[in-house]
Amino acid sequence: MSTENEGNEGIVGHGAPSVPPVPSSGPAAAPEGTVGHPSAGAEAPTQQMPPMPASAPGAQAAPSYQTSAPGAGWPPPPPSASPWGWDSAAHTTPGGPPGRRRGTGGLVAAVLAAALVAGGVGGGIGYWAAENSHESGVSTTVSAGEAPADFKRDPGTVAAVAGKALPSVVTIEAKAGGGQGEGGTGTGFVYDKEGHILTNNHVVESAADGGELSVTFSNGKAFVAEVVGRAQGYDVAVLKLKNAPSGLAPLPLGNSDRVAVGDSTIAIGAPFGLSNTVTTGIISAKNRPVASGGGSSGKNSYMSALQTDASINPGNSGGPLIDASGAVIGINSAIQSAGGNGLGQSQAGSIGLGFAIPINQAKNVAEQLIKTGEPVYPVIGASVNMTDQGKGAVIATQGSGGTPAISPDGPAAKAGLKGGDVITKFNGKPVDSGPTLISEIWNHKPGDKVTLTYERGGKESTVQVTLGQRKGDG
């Protein structure tokens, strides 16, 4: 699984974060049911899709018109040239922008063939109507339907939710200091009106020590930013805009504890540097234990994640996972890639297994970082085996560097836990490994009372533990 960031320097033509282009002209409103692409906080004119080539799967073959003698009936021979004067290189839709020049002759031919079919059918209908008008005297003029001038999308649509959220989502460019050449692209979102930006630690850690950070909004305006605090274990970071503009609109924060499997989700980010990209899905699972690594520190992060099938790719890291009401329920952080060897940085793409840090946890961490600049982690005061899986979290018999596996006078010691004990449940939830236990612990705060179920010598016991704390990532 991979923490999807981020090293996008290999993308051709990727410099400053891209903003979706807005057509120079277009219809004033889109017909109902057409999905627009909001950009820079406003709805861009809806683009009409090009006609489907006749050879596309599911498309009907173009009618074959045979040359016939006058009076042979309908349909008449097609005109020798397109009624709109298209040529083989580019075309212009009446009242619309010039078409793009195609790079492949075969594709041009297929597109033009589809357009000519539409023109031929229209011409045939017009010919039939004109012939009958001589006998009936009835007008054959047909008015094309127009979209209502006051067309508005319902508040709950994806387009409406995304359009409101996009102005508060930013693309982050990180560059390492000291000429190291490291860096990449990620995403973040406005946390408060003071200019704090919430994102992933692995998005910004390469620039944390003497590097450069730039933040670009969906309207193309860029600002220099600095790191306020980072929590490597939680994979959360807070930035602050220098010379923050007035009128910042923080995204509303939801309650990730109330999220249900099947709830709709919207992910916004900059996959592979493509800023302001919106994808949709559902909550596939909750409380998914995830250990992700691969940042420049080489250390793992742990979360009890929200799993979603919304498409998340490298560059989406740090972006918001939003519910149908427009509230943030998580921070997109990691993906499982096909053929991957776990959770780490990778340029592999989405296979529908994305993971987000629950916003309730991220909010607690963000408040710590804004207040003190360093994270605080809840602990039980015991070292556990991080490699074995299946039977539970095994308390080590000896800590790293010869230190005790159980801290003297720590929470675990006070609860009577010993080296070799196997913790099988945390507050009644099954625990299958050390990473799962840590993910559950880090969903709480120091001072919280929790219940641990453990096995010793084949006997199961339950104890209550008051969580201690550890400051910083050292």
How is this structure best described in words?
By secondary structure, the protein is an alpha+beta fold. 15% of the residues lie in helices and 26% in strands. It is built from 6 helices and 21 strands. The chain has helices spanning 105-136, 158-165, 201-204, 359-372, 411-414, 434-441, and strands at 38-39, 42-43, 169-175, 183-190, 196-199, 212-217, 222-231, 236-241, 264-269, 277-292, 301-308, 320-322, 328-335, 354-358, 376-379, 393-394, 422-426, 429-430, 449-456, 459-466, 468-471. Mean pLDDT is 75; it is low at 4-76 and 78-134.
Q: Which strand order does the major sheet show?
A: 3-4-5-8-7-6
Q: Count every beta strand, where a strand is a DSSP E run of 2 or more residues.
A: 21
Question: Compute the gyration radius: what is it?
Answer: 29 Å
Percent of residues in beta strands: 25-35%
Q: Major sheet, described briefly?
A: 6 strands, antiparallel, barrel
Task: Determine the number of helices (DSSP H or I, runs of at least 4 residues).
Answer: 6
Give the proportion of residues in helices: 10-25%
SS-based class:
alpha+beta
End-to-end distance, in Å?
Answer: 25 Å
Round the mean pLDDT to the nearest integer and report it. 75
- Shape descriptor reads globular
Which residue ranges are poorly predicted, with pLDDT under 50 across at least 5 consecutive positions? 4-76, 78-134
Order of helices and strands: EEHHEEEHEEEEEEEEEHEEHEEHEEE
